[in-house]
Amino acid sequence: MAFDDLYQEIILDHYRNPQNFGEVYHSCTVVEEDNPVCGDQIRLMIVVNADGLLQEIKFKGSGCAISMASASMMTEAVKGKPISTIQRICSDVIGAMRGEKDPQVLENYGDLVALKGVIQFPARVKCATLAWHALEDALKEEAKKFTR
Ligand code: ZN
Fold it and tell me: pLDDT tens digit string along 31-81?
């Protein structure tokens, strides 16, 4: 199987079977982002616990396979991790998608390696980064809570 086929398979798998898709029904930080170019929308809900770990993360949304798969892979990659680690993952993934970091960095993050297949399609990069920008915004909202 060629690498591109493998990446496509991973993306379609997450699209058909998204992880952490749904709502958080108690107090949480909510952000919404959209990518008007493609019509992708995401609503991201996170809960950070007192130890600074991302205790819960769920998303809802609609859009193309890349946007929804990226959100699903993102939730798997960051759930339960410390915020400082998550910020590094965000910066690695967004940097790799924008061509500012070596795409090899995606090899460190499980299924996210499939996003390497998207880098060669600049028009789709925004689809892939939508969920990640939502996560960065949600973490900024969280940070405000603690500096109030
Ligand atoms: Zn899209």
Answer: 999 999 999 999 999 999 999 999 999 999 999 999 999 999 999 999 999
In the reported structure, the alpha carbon of residue 63 is separated from the centroid of ligand 1 by a whole-number distance in angstroms of 6
Residue 147 pLDDT class (50, 70, 90 cuts): low
Q: Which residue has the tokens 């060629």?
A: 2
Q: Which helix (H) or strand (E) holds 3?
A: helix 3-16
Domain boundaries 3-143, corresponding CATH code: 3.90.1010.10
4 alpha carbon – ligand 1 mean position (Å): 18
The average pLDDT across 3-7 equals 84
Query: Does the predicted TM-score (pTM) go above 0.90?
Result: yes
Query: How is residue 45 written in tokens?
Result: 């809900």
CB atoms within 10 A of CB 66: 25
| Alpha carbon of 27 to ligand 1 centroid (Å) | 29
Q: Where along the chain do its domains lie?
A: 3-143
Cα 73 to averaged position of ligand 1 atoms, centre (Å) = 15
Ligand 1 centroid vs 140 CA: distance in angstroms? 24
Neighbours of ion ligand 1 (CB under 5 A): 38, 40, 63-64, 67, 127
Query: If DSSP codes are grouped into helix, strand and coil, which group holds residue 91?
Result: helix
